[in-house]
Design brief:
Four copies of one chain form a homotetramer. The first copy, chain A, is mainly α. Chain A has nine helices and no strands. In chain A, helix 8 runs antiparallel to helix 9. Chain B binds a DNA duplex through helix 3.
DNA sequence: AATGAATGAGGGTTCATTCAT
DNA sequence: CATGAATGAACCCTCATTCAT
């Protein structure tokens, strides 16, 4: 139970309440699944009243959509900081950072991943979910393709297809997340991270070492 | 809508009806998502009456479980035929066959994959789903690890970890399926297949060629 | 489970099948209550197929009605044999026999009483049930009133109202049955019988002794 | 149909709504029988919407149980006021009051008795019903036995068994209620009351007169 | 005469949404 | 803004009844 709400129930800026509800939704989806997430559960988790969700979001659908968007936006922001930011200059450093980022605590947070795969599981029959998930992956794919292209260029490798490598990396990370999320005993997070590193180390040996 | 059933009520062996209902369930999950799949929709899809599903399965839950089991069993059987059958003798042939199998029309059937990922998306909050999905992956992992170990042994490679390679392959295939399923325009099935091949060709160059 | 039915399911005279189904219905009502008695349960108890009940009785309602009638008829027949038969000549003997009959094993059979009170509980809202139950009690009341009147006449008692005594006796027996049926630990059958005897012994001291 | 409720939805304290629903349930059971009582009927009778019953009671079962409890509690309270209260001091007065109470308008209310016998009719197959009904009768039996014992002591009667007399009285009243409820033409309420009085007047002649 | 798979109306229950307070 | 009792459509499930065999 996470009752951040003050007892007095004083009016709060719209954005604060929305964020509070989105966080509660994330927890609910992780705990009860997407289909098991009800408005009552979400608002109780937020320590607020039943009607509040429909006040700030128009409907359950909108709340879910904004929750998904929130999760993908956060990931996208973190990824963009690495791929486009000034902190990392060399190609190697960026790739290394990407790898670390994709298996950092903030990213492999069970709650957020549960949201991601919860929506992905329904995406095929829900064009709106599909659009949000796809946009996220499209964005990532472009940037990662460019990054890997740089690495291949630096290595003088003219054979390997950067786009294929990028698509493979994204899919691999998705698959590792999913497998570790569903059964962490079979695929511990550590092993997931090593598998991802192994993938890049094999494909881009000059930039990434198997290490760790 | 697949109304093979005649208007006149005709008794059928239990197994025939169950199979008919499972097939209808698969289609429904693909079309409406797991949460959008109702008994009414399933039985209408099967061209039968509402009550029939509870007659042959005890509850919706049981119907869904048997549907998931049916999909995983079919995959497991096909995979076992390759990994344990006598048709393929050499390690290379087996790996090649596995790759082809994983991207064969029967496996990358959108309906079946929608079922698989629909359940996976809810697996974390549903122990029963989790168990079925995990058992499937555990089984596959053991066999594939053994296969890859043979390949590495044959190649004299004592560095690469077969278990890591197998976990990576399974995750990669999962990720590719998921990405192609959700947005086939971004990741066409052909590209998925190539990405998987590329993964194995890089890791086991003596056994698999980039090809195609 | 009472499978009197022969394995070969040979056709049986209509009356045999009907009786078989009525007996199964009695057991079902005793076991599951009137509202918990389903056609499937009844036919399974009889060791027959689901459709058979609607073949021999027109509907569930008819089956239930005939079951109630069967129970009341059996009681009425036994009672009539005492009150109208030639076996007992003296008033005393008849009253004594009535008392013994009302608490004899055949009458205080839990199954039959469960049927009786199951229907009585619904009688107010079901005119058909009400009619059958009332006819039974009316019949009994007339005969018992006459019997008690003879006793009072023989005793020279001109004060006590035979009709009131009879109505009281019938109600008392109903009440004792009901209380012993619902909670035999609180009111054991033996005690019930003694209470009924006590009632008659007090009202008709010349004919019935407290005894036992 | 009792639509005290206004058309405009107006929130009410939980207890008010529960009581409203219990009263509606009592009417429904009286009108349609226990098995004919549906949630839709009850809520319509209360002039409320279908979902309300499951909002205040968790299930139909709970609603029924609380309804039965309400009816037995009301009876128990009235009876306790006589048997334990200070209003009546002499044994005679208490017995007289008990008799009048048991056939007072509030007690022989057709709706409440229909509930009582509706549940009793199913009690044998429903342990929960059985428990509530039995507790009620056990309580009454103890108190009435004590009261009758006092009367017998006062009369110097050392022969009659007070417990038997009490059990008989309870059963007789039950039986009279049931017979009058099911067929008031055959056994008018007035006659029922006289029969009960006759029972006590015969057994406890020093305390109760045949009267009326 | 007998079977039991199939039907579908009707039941209890859930839950997104509304709105008087 | 915030509340939560109230609503009612839609869900899953049961079961009396039907009918091809």
């Amino acid at each position: 139970m996470t009752k951040t709400a003050n007892k007095t129930r004083r009016a709060q800026p719209k954005e604060v309440r929305k964020e509070q509800l989105i966080q509660a939704t994330i927890k609910c989806i992780a705990k009860h699944g997407l289909s098991g997430t009800t408005m009552a559960l979400v608002t109780r988790e937020a320590g607020l009243s039943m009607g509040i969700a429909n006040l700030h979001f128009e409907s359950k659908e909108k709340l879910l959509l904004e929750t998904l968007q929130s999760v993908t936006d956060e990931y996208a922001a973190g990824q963009a900081a690495i791929l486009e930011g000034e902190k990392f200059q060399s190609t190697s450093a960026r790739i290394e950072a990407l790898l670390n980022f994709d298996f950092s605590a903030r990213v492999i947070d069970k709650n957020k991943l549960a949201v991601w795969f919860g929506f992905l599981g329904e995406a095929r029959s829900r064009p709106t979910y599909q659009r949000i998930c796809s946009r996220q992956d499209s964005l990532a794919e472009e940037k990662i393709t460019a990054l890997f292209q740089s690495a291949l260029d630096e290595a003088g490798d003219k054979v390997v297809d950067a786009a294929l490598l990028a698509a493979g990396y994204i899919a691999l990370v998705d698959g590792l997340w999913l497998n570790s999320l569903v059964d962490p005993r079979r695929l511990p997070w550590k092993k997931s991270a090593r598998a991802a590193r192994h993938y890049l180390a094999t494909a881009l040996p000059k930039h990434i070492k198997p290490g760790k």
